[in-house]
Amino acid sequence: MSALPVVAKVLNVSLDELFGTECHLGRGKRGPASQLERNIERISELPKQKQRFVMEMLEAVLTQANA
Fold first, then answer.
1. What's the CA angle centered on 52, arms 48 and 57, to 5 degrees?
2. Concatenated DSSP letters for 1-65?
3. Cβ atoms of residues 37 and 26 within 8 Å
4. Could you tell me the pTM of the whole model?
5. Among 7, 46, 50, 63, which residue's Cβ finds the most Cβ atoms within 10 Å?
6. What's the sign of the alpha-carbon dihedral 59, 5, 17, 50?
7. Minimal CA–CA distance to 43: which of 12, 17, 18, 16?
């Protein structure tokens, strides 16, 4: 199971936006990609097991931040 749908849900974007085919994360602007966009791209290139680990860490941080 891919962690990408979870990443998309956490970021409140579609998978199309996540993959750059339709983007509202700021890619309509000029200039370099944001650090968030670069990191999402790097995460999507990781093996599935490492993607899951990153997602678990991200979800833990976000849960703690909302507590």
1. 150
2. --SHHHHHHHHT--HHHHTTSS--SSTTSSSSPPHHHHHHHHHHTS-HHHHHHHHHHHHHHHHHH
3. yes
4. 0.52
5. 7
6. positive
7. 18
